[in-house]
């Protein structure tokens, strides 16, 4: 009889231990953050680059999470328009043309946001996922798609040079 409670305690410890380990694998570390500005003047939010390990030599290799917290209202179509604008600037003409249907399909999932809302782009396991307030809105498969999509913020002509530098810890 005395072994039953002990067995239950050991089993409970194993279950909790395995749960904790799984959670630890899903833990993101905030590596760098930056203000998000509209028209290069008005701070509308904050961007955070997160990784499982911020000591990686290349911060943009998966898994990587790019999170945006908003301090004011931003219309959803503004995200889609800005995304396509910066993708066109950063991708070759052929790549942009070939990816346009997939990019537009992905971008159609952006929604209006207000103070306190959070978007997250998570690139892992060969796919890019878009979340709003922890709710998955869409995903697209392929590391190539994800790498190209992140050019909006990390390409040669990014949305904001200072945001890019801050998120990469370059200044």
How do the helices and strands line up, and which of them pair or pack?
Layout: H1 3-25, E1 29-38, E2 42-51, E3 64-70, H2 76-90, H3 93-107, E4 118-124, E5 127-132, E6 135-141, H4 143-149, H5 151-154, H6 161-167
Helix pairs in contact: 2-3
Could you walk me through the main structural features you see in this protein, from its secondary elements to its overall organization?
Helices cover 42% and strands 27% of the residues. It has 6 helices and 6 strands, in the order αβββααβββααα. It has a 6-stranded antiparallel β-sheet with strand order 1-2-3-4-5-6. Strand 4 and strand 5 form a beta hairpin.
> What is the multimeric organization of the chains shown?
single chain
Give the overall shape, derived from the CA principal axes. Answer: globular
- Poorly predicted spans: 1-25
Average pLDDT score: 86
Tell me the strand percentage band.
25-35%
The percent of residues in helical segments reads 40-55%
Brief summary:
The protein has 171 residues and is an alpha+beta fold. Helices cover 42% and strands 27% of the residues.
Which structural traits does this protein have?
six-stranded antiparallel beta sheet, 171 residues, disordered N terminus, 6 strands, globular, alpha+beta, single chain
């Amino acid at each position: 009889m005395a072994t039953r409670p002990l067995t239950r305690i050991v089993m409970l410890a194993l279950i909790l231990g395995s749960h904790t380990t799984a959670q630890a694998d899903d833990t993101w570390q905030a590596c760098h953050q930056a203000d998000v500005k509209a028209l290069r003047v008005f701070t509308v939010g904050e961007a955070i680059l997160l990784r499982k390990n911020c000591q990686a030599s290349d911060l943009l290799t998966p898994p990587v999470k790019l999170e945006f917290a908003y301090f004011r209202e931003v219309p959803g179509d503004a995200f889609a328009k800005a995304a396509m604008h910066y993708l066109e600037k950063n991708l070759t003409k052929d790549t942009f043309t070939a990816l346009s249907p997939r990019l537009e399909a992905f971008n159609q999932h952006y929604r209006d946001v207000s103070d306190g809302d959070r978007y997250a782009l998570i690139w892992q396991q060969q796919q890019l996922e878009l979340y709003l307030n922890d709710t998955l809105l869409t995903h697209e498969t392929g590391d190539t798609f994800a790498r190209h999509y992140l050019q909006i913020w990390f390409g040669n002509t990014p949305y904001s040079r200072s945001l890019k530098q801050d998120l990469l810890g370059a200044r």
